[in-house]
# Entry
Amino acid sequence: MGSKMPFREAVEEVWHGHKTAVGEATCRRVTYRNGQAAEAIVCQEAARREKEGFDETEAPERLVLSADGSFIHLTNGEWREVKGMAVGEFETERSDGGKEADVRTRNLSYFTRSYRAREFEYFALAELARRGLDKAETVVAVTDGAEWLQSFIDYHCPKAVRIIDFAHAVGYVAEAGRAVWGEDTEAFASWFARSRHQLKHQPPQRTLAELRLLQPKAKQDEQAAALDSARLYLQRRLEMIDYPYFQRIGYPIGSGSVESAHKQVVQRRFKQAGMRWAPQNVDPLLALRDLTCNQRWSEGWDHIVDYHWQQRHHIVRQRKQEGRSKPSASVTFSMLKDSGLLTPAAELDEIAPVKEKPKKKPEDHPWRKNKWPTKESWRWNK
# Structure
């Protein structure tokens, strides 16, 4: 429950559903503790996959892979990027006499962490190996073209077909048009509608030519800079924006799968009103969110229970080993004397002379004279 909803709501849900009273602090502590176990299990699995190779899994025919980032608010006032990856199978259905391709994605699974790019790249290996990425006949990677994403694809699947998300590419075209025509003008709306259709249904070289035709219209340096930025971005990724070709062979051109990852995994739990997160609690909760959204909670919970049992067994075994390492023979007085650790008695007297206590009470002690407290002497006690 703590991985699905705020802890206060989770406590109420447990009470209404199971009539069990659980404190909010307990719910939070148990959630984070098991989240740390889930995170550690994924790390161990990634290390095992890298060392031993991939297991024999059913080879999927076509996989689509997407990755992107979003930001959450931390308790220290900073914002941290949460990287998300979505992988799933896709199939293509033709309509309108085979001209239009309807690409549908199914069996999506997610991996989300707030790690740095290299760490995220490494530990995503566990989920990608489970999905059989290395055995897929076709892998299509739809991203926004960021450098860390290209490194991610190079590490996991260099043979993947790389496609720039169509909405992201269109955004650069729109920025160029706004720089020349203005934000809300009829000229911009007409030009952008035509350019958007052209980018999707005609070779990308025509869109680049269209942007070059706008250069003389840039009267200010800011306008010229916006045009150059859009044109260079698209020109450097020319092979990845050939959308007519991708649609013709039935490849997806949008990254809606990774957007659903951020919506399902991150936003629903981490980005509600007023939420801020301690940095050390982000990734454990994300590990539980992955299990929930991947429909693998039962399997993942069994692994978490086994992990806790192994940790306890390791601690007990370590304590036993530490106990065996202690000397079995008891230390005797003669051993201390021979080692010279004992201080001679004469030196002890000089250091701290011992006062002899009287063995008997003095003769004038009141108790020896049978002088016991009388009833009158205890009147103050009433």
Summary: The radius of gyration is 36 Å. Strands lie at 62-73, 79-95, 100-113, 138-143, 161-164. The mean pLDDT is 83.
